[in-house]
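S.,

Sequence below, as promised.
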Amino acid sequence: MSHDAGAADTEGSVTAHRDGAILRLTLERQQRRNSLTQLMIHVLVGELTQAATDDSLRAIHLRGAGGDFCTGADWVSTNSGAAERPRTGSLVRRIPHAAHRVIELVHSIQLPVVCSVRGWAVGMGCNIALAADFAVAATDAVFWEPFVERGFSPDSGATWLLPRLAGVARARRMLLLGEKVRGVDAADWGLIHQAVDPADLDDVAEQLLGRLATGPTVAIGMAKQALNYGQHTSLGESLTQELFNLELSSRTLDFKEGLEAFRERRDPDFRGR
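The prediction came back faster than expected:
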């Protein structure tokens, strides 16, 4: 399935392809390093929203076409050519339903999300990768948050994601000083899951996706939800949330299969149910 306005050079597109139980989303705007137009953001929101309730899916793969992942929202194309200046408060009205919704969906959807990162991951593109459950990057990929250098404050979750992943001091280096971080350092900082040789990126991502797509999907989703919940609550509240999640996951067919496989000393055959 492909979403295209017929003018990829200006509008860009996002291709959505079902590969068994994996949904593969590819950003397609190579001549602009896959910077995101409003159309592309709209399609991402739609695809991720639909995936959230698709019981046949078990993992999501996000990647950019060509040599780069994504260089963020294309502010130039978004704000040029307007007949008149937007009304005051335009950003506050629009962004929560567009760019911010992409970050929220990647972060909260109860399916594991894997990002493959080559080349540049900038601004919102950087934050999409950081919001994913697993970002696998080429060692020479570059993560960059250039908001302040462009004269405006960070958005798309940067100030929430960076301190939690890499600490406040490193967040300041990226957000206030605009420091560029290569893939190998991003892995060392804990920003991403793994940095690998560029030639190995596709294979490593596929191995990870294969493992996740054959796992106990409900339990993975519950674990992801509890991890996110625990970032802003007390130990006692997290323990209670874990109990509710355990009650749900223990009612799945995969839970029964896991116990049987343990008793029979074999690998489990999870079906995502």
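Residues 125 and 133 are 15 Å apart (CA to CA).

Coffee later?
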